[in-house]
Amino acid sequence: MPNSRRYFLKSTGIALAAFAAEPSFLLRTALAQSAMPAKDRPILVAIFQRGAADGLSMVAPFGDRDYYSVRPQIAIPAPRAGDNESAIDLDGFFGLHPSLGSLKPIYDQGRLAVVHAVGSPSNTRSHFDAQDYMEAGTPDVKSTPDGWMNRYLQTKTASRSPFCGVAFSPNMPRALSGAAPAIAMTRIEDFDIRAGASPDMPAEFAAMWQKKNGETFEALRMLKAANPQQYGVENGANYPGSQYGNTLRQIAQLIKSGMGLEIAFADIGGWDTHANQGSVRGQLAQRLQEFGQAIAAFHQDLGDRMRNIVLLTMTEFGRAVRQNGSGGTDHGHASALLVSGGPVKGGKVYGKWPGLAREQLYEGRDLALTTDFRDVFSEIVVKHLAVADAGRVFPGYKAQQRLGLL
User: In the chain, is it the N or the C terminus that has fewer CB atoms within a 10 Å radius of its CB?
Assistant: First the structure.
C-alpha cells in the first residue's frame, strides 16, 4: 500500500473505529445536540494508573505501627507540623504523599474521598490480566465481550451524542469497548476529518467515503462546529505540560463545549516501581506530583461545573508491603483509589483497614483486600449515573457493601 494510503488510514482510524453506528443515527443525534440546551447531565471521568500504583505511599497508613518496620527506606514519614517532606495528615491515621499536596484543599472542601485496601479479588499478578479484569468489570473472566463503561452506555436507549463516551488513547480501551458508540482519540485536533478530497486523501478513498459515509461526514462537520478548543483554561488552573495533563485539559474542553460527554477515560503509566521507588522524593514522588496536579487543575478549571462530575481513579493492583532489595516494591494485591467531584461525600478515607502485621497480610506479603472495586464502581453507576440495576453493568455481581461515597 502506498505511504499516502497508510497515512490516511492511520489518521482516520479514529472515525473508522468509533462511528460504527448507522450514519443516520449520527446525523440525527448531531441535529438533536445542536438544538439541545445545556443540561447538568452526570459525567464520569475515569483515570487508570497503569502499572500498579503503590497505595501505601499514595495514602500512607502512618498510624499503623507495622508500616515503618516493613519499609525502612521508602515509607512516608508521619506528619510533622511545618515539614513539607512528611505525610499530609487526613484523619490522624492516613496521610497523603507530600507530592499530592495539591489535592488536600479538595479533600478539605469535602469533594475528595479516598478508598483504601481496595482492588480486585483476583489473585493474578499479571498487569495485562488484572487491567483486563478491571476494565471488563469481571475479575477472572476473560471471555467478557465488552467493558463496564460501554455496558453503562448500552443501558441508555434514548438518542445520544456520538461523543457520549470518549477515551484519550491511540486505541479504544477495554473499558469502553462494546456495542455502544464510543470514540478514541489522542488529541481533539486530530479528530479533524474533512468531508472531501484533500492532498492527504487518495482520490479513491475520498470517493468511497463521500458515497458511503456522506451523512457521517456531515455529522462530524456539525459536531466540529462546537469547536471545543475555543474553551480556554479558566480560574487560573495550571495543568502539567505532559500528555496526561493535556488529556485532562482537553476533557475539560469537551465538557465545556456541551457536546454530550457522559464518560471520559484517560490513563497515566509509570507506576511499576520495582526499583528505586523513593520515599518523599524520587521516581514515585515525581509521578504522583504530575498525577495530583492535573486532577487539582481539572477541578479548578471547571469550577462550578464540577457539581455534576465524578472523577474516579483506579489501578490494577497494589504493591507488596515490604520493600525489596532494589529499593522498590514488587507486584501486590490491594491498593487505594480516589473519588472526587461535586456529588462526592469527601473529606474521608473509606474502607476497612486490614492491618500490616504479618498475619494480616494477603498471602503473607500484600495489603489484604477489604473493598471490591466493583462496590465503588457500582455505587457510582447507580447513584451518580442513575442506572437502576447495577447488574446490567457488572453482571453476576452483588455489591458486598455500601460505602456511602455519594
Answer: N
For the chain, the structural domain boundaries read 3-71+100-272+293-321+330-392
**pLDDT (tens digit, 9 = 90+) per residue, 67-124?**
999 999 999 999 999 999 999 999 999 999 999 999 999 999 999 999 999 999 999 9
Amino acid letter, residue 278: G
Residue type, 397: Y
- Per-residue confidence (pLDDT) for residue 181, from 0 to 100: 86
**CA distance to 16, 59, 145, 176, per residue, from 401 (Å):** 41, 22, 27, 26
Look up the pTM and report it. Answer: 0.87
State the Cα angle at 9 between 6 and 11, rounded to 5°: 105
Report whether 333 contacts 362 (CB < 8 A). yes
Angle at CA of residue 246, ends 306 and 33, nearest 5°: 55
Determine phi and psi for 254, rounding to 5 degrees. -60, -40
Vertex 97, ends 94 and 99: CA angle to 5°?
Answer: 155
Q: Determine the Cα angle at 171 with ends 170 and 174, to 5°.
A: 140
The CATH number corresponding to 3-71+100-272+293-321+330-392 among 2.60.40, 1.10.150, 3.30.450, 3.40.720 equals 3.40.720
* Mean pLDDT, residues 293-319: 98
pLDDT for 402 beyond 90: yes
252-267 tens-digit pLDDT: 999 999 888 999 999 9
A 10 A CB-CB count for 83 gives 12
Three-state DSSP class for 320? strand
Would you give the end-to-end CA distance of the chain in angstroms? 53
Q: Record the cell numbers describing residue 53, joined without a space.
A: 500504583
Beta bridge partners of 264: 45, 166
d(CA 314, CA 12): 30
